[in-house]
What we know:
Layout: H1 2-33, H2 43-48, H3 53-56, H4 66-73, E1 79-88, E2 91-98, E3 114-117, H5 129-140, E4 148-153, E5 170-174, E6 182-186, E7 192-196, H6 198-206, H7 208-211, H8 225-250, H9 268-279, H10 281-294, H11 310-314, H12 327-333, E8 340-346, E9 349-355, E10 362-365, H13 378-383, E11 391-397, E12 422-427, E13 434-437, E14 444-448, H14 450-464, H15 468-471, H16 476-512
Helix pairs in contact: 1-8, 1-16, 8-9, 8-10, 9-16, 10-14
Amino acid sequence: MLHAKRWLYLFHRWLGVLLCVFFAMWFVSGVVMMYVGYPKLTQAERLAHLPPLRSATQGPDLLLEPAEALQRAGITGPLHDLRLAVASAGRAVYLAVPAPQDGTARPHKAPAAVVIDATTGQVLAGVDNNHAIASAQTFAQNADPDIQHLGEVNEDAFTHSRALDAHRPLHRLHLGDREGTVVYVSGTTGEVVRDATRTERAWNYAGAWIHWLYPFRGGVLNAYWTDIVNWLSIAGIAITVTGTVVGVMRWRFAGRYKTGSRTPYRGFMMRWHHVFGLVFALTTFTWIFSGLMSMNPWKIFDSGATPLRQQAMSGGPLVLPGQPAAVHALLAAASPNTRELRWVRTAGHTLVQAQGPAGAPVLLDALTAQPHAWPASAVALAAARLLPYPVMRTDTLQAYDLHYYDRAAHTMTGGTDKPLPVLRVVFDDPQATWVHIDPHTGAVLGRTDSHRRTSRWLFGMLHSWDWLPLLALRPLWDIVLIMLSLGGAVMSVTGVVMGWRRLGIKLRPARRLGPT
């Protein structure tokens, strides 16, 4: 028994020497991430930095109609998506995405867009430095910005996101504004796809960059980054469990030690490490464990669910009408502040979404340019074709709940459009799939199944504490998380000091044996 206890103490001690630095780093960087997240360019930000489309139609160069632009570009097949915006080098362009051959959704694969000049029909063959500078100038919305081209990068500290894979390599440019904004321009479409202010970049190093162990990304250890995070988390769980066991064994619940204390440790650091380790043991365990769950280790949350049949819901791929409404008619029917026209096929209708910098898009019929209104239950009936299984029920959510909710744009799960009301279509399939659909546009907003809902509890709930009643009571949410993080940080920092001292004691004889 004494031998086993000795090994338990040694295991916790030396594993703690290695890991307490990571623990302290995770606790402190987690607080930073509560307020400054990983840089991203949200849909609302992207649209806000695009010029109004009406200004593009009033210049000397008349815009081509979409059918003619596609014909000049040599695109004859059906489409998945088609957009028109002043989005590349300050010019109006059509961005056409060919339809997938199997008609299924591809949630983890960004489709490549063909960029067509809306005045000439010429296909963009590549993005050079001048093209990237022109895109950055348009994004800056400044008549004479001091744009600096900082070169091309495939991936850096602020562009690890998988969503950017279709746009690499990226042009990196400094806007020369007061905020010190750096933008990244797609090497394939010429669009600005990410922005990061000086403040975001600085806090990112103290927050998301170090929290997610991104120093291991992009170098020789890039291929091992996932394994490094997984195994450090597993080791963190082990040290938390063994530390809790040791802490309970050494704590006098009945009676006291000769010093009058319930802890046997006399030194300040060891005493505080013991006390804080017991008080914050459960919080530390849940945060390390949920951090591991965020990595979906060994794909445990992959359910193998049937892909959504997007074309079945849409009524086929996007094919423009024989005589579609002219662009100027669509813009006349839309808001003067429209930044983007998007042709889509939804629930058997070919529509155009006229999107402004904020709010829901205006829906227009692609043939007549008249406002479109859905017949009763049309979207829900079309959504039933997404899976080859019966629909158990369709709910209309008027408020957020535990599985459909909004977070601030800077958070890991924030920045995406979460409109209300929303339809929740519940399928009777083996994975218990739910699909959320915007009843205004008919767009699929996301899907979840039993595996992903488990992940939501084990990661979102335990790690970010995104429990709606608590989130609604801010700043109570802030106070609770900051206090728990500070307690964990004290436990970790005392462990770092103790480990440093222990290493100093062990290494001192070796230093004495060195040359004099």
